[in-house]
Specification:
Layout: H1 2-11, H2 22-28, H3 45-52, H4 57-75, H5 79-88
Length: about 100
Amino acid sequence: MKKNKIVREFVDTEIKPEAGYEDILELSRDCKYSNCTHITEDDCAVQRAILEGTLSEERFNAYYKDKNEAEYVSKQKNKTKAIEYMKQRDLFKRS
């Protein structure tokens, strides 16, 4: 039962992939561009925080990976396929 709830929440497009990364969201408010990807843009507050050591590169990489996976799953028209993808990536282990 708990796994089904996780699946519904994860494939639900209303779920924000940034949940749990409020620190990165807060930093991103100071980026020069509102649509900053935090990868190549000039004057990126997130990249600046990584360079200054106030944000670990590992944490940013985890954020970026989670965000990309959530976007991939939410775009799937076939939710069964999306769920199978989640199983392969061990996303059910999250609690």
